[in-house]
Amino acid sequence: MATTITLHQWLAFLILREKRKQEHHGDTNTNFVHKKKAAQLEYIQTAVSVALLLVQSLIVSTPSLSSQQITIDNVTVAIDDKGDAKLLLLLLNLEENPDDEDLQRIIESVTQLEFTPSTKNDSSTHANGEQQESDDDLLREVGTVLHQLFCRGIKPPIVSTNVSSPDEGDSDDDLDSEQPGAEKGRTKHSLRVAQKMLRKASISSLDEYVLSYGVPRNLCRLIIDLIWCEGGNEETKFRSIEEVAEELIQIISKPNLFLYESEATGSTGQLNFGSTLYGRRNEATSFLRAATLVSLDMMETHSKQLVLVEGLSGAGKSHFVASLIRSSSEFGWIYIHAKFDPQSQPLSVVTSAFNIFFMNILANRSEQEYVARVISSLQRNLSSSAIVSLCCLLPSVRNLFPSILRRVVSDEDLSSQNGVVVEDEFASGSQMSRIRLHFIFRKLISALCSVERPLALFFDDLQWADDRCMELLSALMERDHLQELDDNDGTNCLFIGSFRSNETNDNLLSHFDKFEQSTSVDVTKIELGGLAKVESNNMVSEVLRLPARLTSPLNELVQRKTTGNPFHIIHFMQSLVKDSILNYSLSDKRWVWDIEAVKSTSIDKTVLELLARKLSQLPGNIVDGLKVLSCLGPKVDDTIMKYLYTSPESRNEFIACLDLAVGENILEKSGDSAYSFVHDMLKQSAYAVMSEEEKGEKHFWIGMHLIANASADTDEFNAIIFSIVDQINAANTYGVTEEASHMNFAELNLKAGKTSIDVSDFQSALSYMKAGVSLLNGWQDGEYYDMSLQLYETAALVSYLNTDIGLMQQYLEILFENAKCFEDRLHGYLVMIQSLLSNGKHVEAMKKILFILQELGESISINATPKEVYIELMSTKALLDTISPADVINGKRMADKGLRTVKLSVEHGFCSDSAVGLQIYGFGVLNIQNDVEECLKWNHTALSLVKSLGAKQMIPRVTTNVNILAYWKEPLQAKIESLKENHHELLMVGDLEILPLNAIHCCRQSLLCGRNLQTAQKECAALLHEMHQLRQMNALIGMISNHLSILKLIGSNYVSEEPLFRLLGNSEINSLDELLQFCKSNRLVGPTQQCYFDRLMLAFWSKNYEEAAQYAEKYSECHQTRRFPDLFQTFYQGITAFRLVRLEDDKSREWADVGKNALSKYETWVNYSDWNWENKMLLLEAESHACIGELEIAKSKFQASIGSAQKHRFVHEEGLASELFGMFYDENGNKEEAMQQYSHARSCYQKWGAFALADRLNTAS
């Protein structure tokens, strides 16, 4: 319930509260002054809020009001008395002397102000509108009311404000007529001066009067400009009541800037631009929309969110992102900022950003629970070797995994004691290394982010990133389909990239195009142009702590000269301060400026010129410090400074210079001793002021100090190896190095290059190798022969890894020409072979391999006959029969690895390559002799061997073959998880040769083991898309065929095929028939066989037995080696044959023989695993007996097959046996029993998820 009183009455309550709060109760003078100021401030805060309500009420009432009606007594205040009788009595003046609590309630319960003017004495306005009022009259009276409000009810001490401005008052003719006897020019001048002095004196008097009531200067200026609105400056005068409301809103919204006055404000003569984000409302909305999707996990499609921010240098891209993420920190956001720099290796920028993040998060005790969760996730999803690799990339995480690192070191020590040679990864493929790096980072991202802790990963200044970093960004945003199944796929990460819109290149733009076309990435594009006038005025207004109305004329010039570029605005205004055009007035306690001087000030042609001029005005010692800093990376801390300035005095002097630069807003400081330039353009400017010779000398000085003061071959030296080499190479570019030291510098480049290879940074490695070779100045013999050999073979390798085949060939030619022996050329040959293979030149690669083997003393025929293969196999078997698996695992080790296998291993010792030979032998005895036991024995021995050797790269590869062969003995369902786990292990080591085989087998086994088809479909789709991302096209063909088989069994519409076929990137393939034809025409034997198998399977389950028989035969025709689907092809073909015995009388005997052959094989195979093969053998037996009329035996076999399938969890084959049993009853006239079996089969198919088969039975019944 509201009670209304006049504003004059309410003001009396407000004055009373202030008076009571200022009462002296024995306080000290200091406390009393403080109380008085606090009471005044509270009064003003309340008054300004009511002033806004008053003005807003006036906006509504203005059309019906005259200036004479705008008085404090004509304003009513609505008070929410909440039905309180005591409060109501106070408001109605029926009770005096309210207590403090009631007084506070009255003051704080204002709900509305309203003008209720009386009509008497209103002579200014008439119904016929004869007398017109100006807006100035209304504004002047508003000023008067506000004066009373802020000055405790007192009216302004001015009788008349009608003093014309000499600039905007009477015309020249009017002035002359007022002084008839005066000289015209002199009269006008005298009047102008007199009027100006009168107005200035009046304003000054009013200003001092208002200030005496404790009114802040911005409110004081507002009141005066309203009262003196007729003679005000045209550019800053109020023109409407709405503008008054806008200014009050600005003051209220940011009281720290516009209401509260600080003695220190501006007293230093420095502008403080702070960290506020100005304007960018629409851009911020787009950014925050993407961030919301990430933080709330609203992305049902598991798409990653990428925000690309573009703009010219100085547009505020970094500040824009940092401000918005900082504003979201209360929602649990974590932030990693990788800022690329033209002087830093791009990948090291990324790893450094993650490293700094972990250093900070580990130092924060409140984050212990979060850190524990990250550790748990990494240990769960990364192998020990992958964690070791992660620790090499990010040294700050080493302390998180002490047990793993201790165990790995222990294993390596143990291996070295046993004479094991560490596996040589010299020529590991670039794609393999990249996949491993990408996999580790993807798991790291997944571990870091969650719904509760979303991650913002900001790649800043992408125009300086290289291909490797862009590929890493792409890999991080690719859908991890397998991870999605566990609901932990890193979609709670917001990926952000910024770049200069005028410094892009075609390569960068092509990456952006791929992001936009990707189905796994939602791209939000944001372009930051110059600030609009309103936005730049807000910036200028807040920096100067003056209302936007007053700064508008200044901003007009600033905006025009800087085109609204935030960075340019900052430095232009700082230059105005430096040139004393913009000053802080201690007397007026506000910033003032000479508008004419601003107009005549020209901004430099480029901001770099402006910054160069700014730097030239700094003391020399500061400039010298900035020059040193500009030669280093984006951020410099004590890690580097302690080597450059070894004495405490010199280091403190350097830090003091940097601190002075911080005060000049050139540098920013984080922590105790980390410095970076506020903007990369400042760094560019500091670097640009040096001559070419000075740059070289500065780089050389830095590099040599780092070398001299960091102990070689220590962890500390290795930690700064890139900084050392980058400085030396930069100095060499400018021709400033000592020739006598070039060999040492070449060796340092070799070390930096090898370190870069270890972290898969191949582009950096290539730049180091080029520099090393250049410093070498041609091949060197004698004491530098070994270094020459290593430089050229490593240079050839990284050229290949960067797909620069021409450069690789140049390095190899020099290597082959100068190497002293064949062994010294061997690494070069390995690089050449890899290059040939990766370019599809398999014949040339094979010739080179045979040449190498011949040089090593091994003569191998590429066209061996089956008989020769058999003889070699038997010879090998005879040799292996003389040893046991234990002899292999515990036997001597081969000291000098070559391309030798089993025989040489037995003679000279075993190595990791021996495992490959053992597995090849195992597959040989399986294919040629059908000896399953011998095959399994030596495959398991191979796995034990690589584990005992600690050959981490080989373990997943050998495990794949062991898992693939496990179907002979181990339950099919049990190996699915092993295959999926090994898939991750293969990704961790980047083995792209075996990874597709593991993926294909995982999909095939998921389908054939009776796993729920919806689950199998999701898992296979995930693997399929992963193979597409890795561009494994042969694997993709077979997996698409397998996936479509699953969809057909589920009953999905065939429209689902279209997006799958699009993955092939071949517009001519749009159906399974076209896919099969493509495989045949391109002689893709493996994919062709897989397509035949899937057509066989679909025909079989659909009971199209004639078609099934045809595809079974075609499958057999392209058979090469024993495969897992072979056993099912035999089963399907056997059942098909027995069914066709009943249908084709003329071929019944042939079909019977085919069926009996299948049954015979299963009678053998069941001995290896009754779990996997018993139900199938029993079903073949049932069909066999049914064909020859042994009905009772057939019946018992059908029942036994159903029971065995149920017992061993093959629900699909339980349904198959029931359906065939139903057909058996049907054929023998027992419809009732047949329907029961059909019903059971339908139930099994539904459990399997094969709704198409269940629907077919519904139709049939």
- Radius of gyration based on Cα positions: 43 Å
List unreliable stretches of 5+ residues.
120-132, 159-188, 408-429, 894-900
Helix-and-strand structural type: mainly alpha
- Give the % helix: 55-70%
With strands numbered from the N-terminus, the spatial order across the biggest sheet is: 5-6-7-4-8
**What fraction strand?**
5-15%
What number is the mean pLDDT?
Answer: 81
Largest sheet: 5 strands, parallel
Q: Could you tell me the number of beta strands?
A: 13
Straight-line N-to-C gap:
77 Å
Number of helices: 59
Shape: flat
Concise synopsis of the structure shown:
The chain is mostly helical and 1261 residues long. The protein is built from 59 helices and 13 strands.
Report on the structure:
- With 1261 residues, the chain is mostly helical.
- The strands form 4 sheets. Strands 5-6-7-4-8 form a 5-stranded parallel sheet, sandwiched between helices. It has a 3-stranded antiparallel sheet with strand order 1-2-3. A 3-stranded antiparallel sheet has the order 11-13-12.
- Helix 39 (866-880) packs across helix 42 (912-929).
- It is built from 59 helices and 13 strands.
- Helices cover 64% and strands 6% of the residues.
- Residues 277-480 form the Orc1-like AAA ATPase domain.
- InterPro entries: AAA_16, Hybrid_Histidine_Kinase, P-loop_NTPase.
- Residues 114-131 have a biased composition (Polar residues).
